Amino acid sequence: MKKIAGIVLAAVPLVVACVGNVQRSARVPHPSVPNSTGQAMSSQADLSVGASSVTDLVAPSVGDASQAVEVPGTQLRGEFRLRTTANSFVGVVHERGFASTSQQPDSTQAPVGNGDVLGYGVVAGGSVQTSMPELRIGLIGEFMIWNVPYVEYQTLAPGFPTNYTIVERGTDSVATLGLGVSPSYKVGQLTAFGGVFARNHPTTLRKEFNTQLVDGGNVESGPFNILLDAGVAYDFTKQLSGSLIINQNLTANPVQYGPGLQVALTAKLGD
User: Fold this and answer.
1) Are 237 and 269 within 8 A, CB to CB?
2) pTM of the predicted model, to two decimals?
3) What is the reported pLDDT for 156?
4) What does the radius of gyration of the chain's CA atoms come to, in whole angstroms?
5) What CATH number belongs to 5-269?
6) Could you report how far apart the first and last alpha carbons of the chain are, in Å?
7) Segments making up each domain of the chain, as ranges
8) In 3D, which of 124, 104, 120 has the Cα closest to residue 112?
9) Residue bearing the bigger pLDDT, 86 or 8
10) Which pLDDT band, with edges at 50, 70 and 90, does 218 fall under?
11) Quick one: residue 128, left, alpha or beta (phi over 0 = left, psi -120 to 50 = alpha)?
């Protein structure tokens, strides 16, 4: 979905032959890890709701100055999973990063404006038993489609009848793939887990000069970012558990992050 809204400062039709300069920025999803303990599901289905990013404990800073993104500090995540075998599951995911909590790593980049970043996707995983009954190795894969708000300033190059600047605000769709491994140890009602998760970090090129002017924010899936995480989950009852995860993004491209905090409650449905 491109170009759902545009603010025209000086209207001019842009044709294929138009050449000029572009400055843009996009509001992209906050890096996070799936809410998975690495243990096998104990119910036929479960519903998990929480925050894949509660807030940034350290303000994000510029990693790659050629890119321009805003990142929501608070991002919610919901998952519905079905147990397919004793040790595997599939599910659907929705995430929403709030525009009101967005931060600009570089205060001089163009402000995106209104619009939450939205994600829809599927998740699948399994749990591998080891020689120790308490210790398992979780495997997970995730595919998401994100609805990313952007802003783009287009200025015609000298030589055209006059200098025009068009400001376009809209949304772009971009896909990300995530893969992770999480060792997990469960004793009674308590589970301790951790692991590594890799997922694309959507981004957009901040500036282009003497380029052909076309519609859209040119949001890309971006580079894979590597996150390490550690967490605990506690079974309050047979039907309800809670989890807390701390993650750290090791990849400063396009943004340098500090530790991230995630929380969730999971309702277990059926035996």
Assistant:
1) no
2) 0.87
3) 73
4) 21
5) 2.40.160.20
6) 41
7) 5-269
8) 104
9) 86
10) confident
11) beta
